[in-house]
Amino acid sequence: MSNPRTAVVGIGATGAVLAASLLARHPETVLVDPRPGLEEAVKRNGIRISGIMDIQVGVEHFVDGIEKLGPYDPDLVFVSTKTFHLPGVLEALEKAVKPGAKIVSTHNGLGTEDLIAERFGPEAAFRMSLNYGVSLKGPSHVEMAFFNRPNHLGALVPDNREIGLRMAEAISAGGLETEFVEDIKRYVWKKMIMKCTMASICAVTDRTIKEALAFPPTREIAEGCFREILAVAGAKGYALGEDYLEQALAYLEEVGVHKDSMCVDVANKTRTEIDFLGGKVVEYGKETGVPTPFYIVMTNLVKAIEDSYSNP
Fold it and tell me: Rounded to an integer, what distance in angstroms lies between the CA atom of residue 244 and that of residue 231?
């Protein structure tokens, strides 16, 4: 797989940045997204990334469904959809890609790489932890608010190390600095401890991360959630040290001037990713015998809000 045929599934804000970095060096990359009008927009205007990064690339190959990937015969597929779409995407990819293809989850949430491994085998599964914040400014224009370099990418089996190194090099060459790491799940936990905790608090209270941490009642909830998820991570084999809570809070107080994406989902009355965020922490807590009362409450509050507009 020295020059893999590459596809990116899901060209929202996150996927567009990844796609642009790949297209910068590999213009044959094929993009996949069913959103009406998106193909016309990206073929006419290309993809524009502004803000922290400045990229403008053209788009030659685009299909509006995974079932149309067959003629492109991709060796490597990055999946950048909303997390709750992943099971359906994997089912479609099973019919569209050949055996031996590598599939990379770039999602938020816990356990997404395991879903790939369950369906395609661990030798097919890669995971990427993205460390940038973006928002859509138009159908093919994304603004990047921050990028805490680098992103991290890893495989589930050691035999994929060389492929992973080449993937990271290719993405970095397009401007999106990415590092291959030996234990990607550790990096996922380090990010998701913050994401899983703050997403539900921000969504329920409609506050920025910084505001939620500055307000004593929500700060108390956040600290309770942090303690629970750190205990769950430890029980899953990823103890991050006694000082990690202090480091995480200091980091979030500095950079958390934006609302979490779950706030946007709730404001737009669309489905949230709570099942792979707080919901996974609750699931893992039950699996390992670690109590998660703060997480149970916050997860169920988000589900109640989502239900109020999904099933009025």
Answer: 12
